[in-house]
């Protein structure tokens, strides 16, 4: 979990005690964080346009791996890993998105401005082929991860910002919530 001071808390679910606290750079708020699907990495989206990667060691320790500066001027509002852990994505307040490769050496694609409003959530589809992107304007877009292009631009879902996107276990239903 994290709080508005930019501190990450690693909590043991069995004992319900705090194992580690990690302080981000002073003045850096964490807007979103996700663990990789293989539980090796923790990715944090920060308010000053930086995404920070942490290495989650098997012994429970956490080590800062690398910072990634956003090319665009927005604050990073959301992050996600592809389900096969071959790439990760960042979305920001300018409506722009970037895809990075894993291992974390290079940008794979700068998608530029996808929405005219902030990107509010990112979710990898259940088969690792697609990425679903929610916006402050209440719209959702579906991108092909492999082909790095737009697959579907859903009609406006809500008059409110999209806050979360997930899938039903049978993979038939795309489930979206708003604020």
TL;DR?
The protein has 179 residues and is mainly β.
Give a verbal description of the structure.
The protein has 179 residues and is mostly beta strands. 0% of the residues lie in helices and 55% in strands. The protein is built from no helices and 16 strands. A 4-stranded antiparallel β-sheet has the order 3-4-5-6, with no helix packed on it. It has a 4-stranded antiparallel β-sheet with strand order 7-8-9-10, with no helix packed on it. The two termini are 20 Å apart.
Considering DSSP H and I runs of 4 or more, what fraction of the residues is helical? under 10%
Low-confidence stretches: none
Question: What general outline do the C-alpha atoms trace?
Answer: globular
**Rg:** 16 Å
Number of strands: 16
* Strands side by side in the biggest sheet: 3-4-5-6
User: Helical element count?
Assistant: 0
Mean pLDDT: 83
Which structural class matches the secondary elements?
A: mainly beta
Q: Between the first and last Cα atoms, what is the distance in angstroms? A: 20 Å
Q: In percent, how much strand structure appears in the residues?
A: over 45%
Largest sheet: 4 strands, antiparallel
- Give the SSE string: EEEEEEEEEEEEEEEE
């Amino acid at each position: 979990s994290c709080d508005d001071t930019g501190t990450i808390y690693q909590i043991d679910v069995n004992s319900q005690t705090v194992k580690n606290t990690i302080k981000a750079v002073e003045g850096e708020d964490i807007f979103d964080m996700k663990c990789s699907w293989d539980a090796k990495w923790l990715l944090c989206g920060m308010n000053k346009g930086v995404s920070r990667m942490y290495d989650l060691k098997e012994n429970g320790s956490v080590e800062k791996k690398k910072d990634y500066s956003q090319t665009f001027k927005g604050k990073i509002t959301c992050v996600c890993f592809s389900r096969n852990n071959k790439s990760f994505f960042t979305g920001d307040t300018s409506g722009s998105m970037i895809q990075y490769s894993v291992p974390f050496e290079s940008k794979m694609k700068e998608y530029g401005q996808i929405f005219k409003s902030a990107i509010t959530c990112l979710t990898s589809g259940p088969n690792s082929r697609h990425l679903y992107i929610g916006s402050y304007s209440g719209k959702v877009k579906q991108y092909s991860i492999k082909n790095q292009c737009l697959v579907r631009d859903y009609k406006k879902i809500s008059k409110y910002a999209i806050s979360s996107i997930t899938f039903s276990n049978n993979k038939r239903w795309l489930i979206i919530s708003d604020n």
